[in-house]
Amino acid sequence: MKRRTFIASAAASAIIARRQVRAASKVFRIGWLTAQREASLTPFLTAFREGLAELGYRDGDNLKIEYRYGDDAPSRVGPLAAELTRLPVDLLVVQGAAVPIVFGLKLSTPSVYAFSGDPVVAGLADSLSHPRGSMTGLTFMAAELNSKRLEMLRDILPELKRVAIVANPEHPGSQIERAYSEESAKKLGLALEFYGTGTESQLAGALATMDKDPPQAISLFSDGFAIQYRQWIIDFGLERRAPLISGWQVFAKSGAICTYGPKLSESYRRLAYYVDRVLKGTPTTQLPIERPTKFETVVNVRSAKRLGLTVPDSMLASADELIE
């Protein structure tokens, strides 16, 4: 009897072992989909792949990533999504402006995303705890940080009285960001001038209007449109001695005097967690949307010198990165 039990147990163990080997040898295929250009996302893709590696996924071994870029043409997202689902892929990883487009397609393929806007305002979720459809992921939106950015501008420029806000009004959550900015401006005694820029022509018009009476500083709300046209906006400010502040490191790298906001590389690394959970069978509806948890301050000392401004020692000491 004991021998039969041992044989049955050994057979069961062998079956389980074979199943584990098959599961371990499965090659997952995921699709990376964005409306942006490849070059603008290279550092974040590196962080994302590092996050996957930490969870045991090796690109070219047990994981195959299919990359699709819209090259700043949102109209390409739909066809690219259809192309990926026909391959097929086990999961879509969607980035930026492509997120609401893919959501509108109502695909059966599950998706996880990295989204700069507010998912609830965008209609992607009933709340952060209750994502809709077959999509969930991360948001970079931290609207309350706009208050701190105005305070930082004031610290750099003590005589500050007028600030221009440049923002894409179509970006989900921009009205919340504006509200925080207006509340902070009242406390600081600042006059805000809001310029809604969602197209190149609107941006050109806004800069032409500002040029007639340049502001003392510019607060640029972060989104894909701002990244696409960042150099134009930043150079405009530098040429008129108006320091610019924004939320993401890329703006400081391009000449903004300072950025304070989510550490995007950490957010993309965290995105790998969502990929892992969905590939292991967790429904997207059971994965709450996460807000940023790690933040960074980047100060461009070179831009400050060009503008003849002195960044407070306390800000320099607390910065995560100095660009000199």
Keywords:
about 325 residues, alpha/beta, Rossmann fold, 2 domains, seven-stranded mixed beta sheet, 13 helices, disordered N terminus
What can you see in these coordinates?
The structure is a single chain. By secondary structure, the chain is an alpha/beta fold. The chain folds into 2 domains: 2-139 and 264-294, Response regulator (Rossmann fold); 145-262 and 296-323, Response regulator (Rossmann fold), CATH 3.40.50. Helices cover 44% and strands 21% of the residues. The chain has 13 helices and 14 strands. The protein has helices spanning 2-25, 42-54, 77-86, 98-105, 145-156, 174-188, 200-212, 224-228, 230-239, 249-253, 264-279, 301-307, 313-318, and strands spanning 28-34, 63-69, 91-95, 111-115, 125-127, 130-131, 135-139, 162-167, 191-196, 217-220, 244-246, 258-262, 295-300, 321-323. The strands form 3 sheets. It has a 7-stranded mixed β-sheet with strand order 9-8-10-11-12-13-14, with helices on both faces. A 5-stranded parallel β-sheet has the order 2-1-3-4-7, sandwiched between helices. A hairpin with a 2-residue loop joins strand 5 (125-127) and strand 6 (130-131). Helix 5 packs across helix 6 (174-188). It is elongated. The termini are far apart. Mean pLDDT is 93; it is low at 1-8 and 10-23. This is ABC transporter substrate-binding protein.
Secondary structure elements and pairings:
Layout: H1 2-25, E1 28-34, H2 42-54, E2 63-69, H3 77-86, E3 91-95, H4 98-105, E4 111-115, E5 125-127, E6 130-131, E7 135-139, H5 145-156, E8 162-167, H6 174-188, E9 191-196, H7 200-212, E10 217-220, H8 224-228, H9 230-239, E11 244-246, H10 249-253, E12 258-262, H11 264-279, E13 295-300, H12 301-307, H13 313-318, E14 321-323
Parallel strand pairs: 1-2, 1-3, 3-4, 4-7, 8-9, 8-10, 10-11, 11-12, 13-14
Antiparallel strand pairs: 5-6, 12-13
Helix pairs in contact: 2-11, 5-6
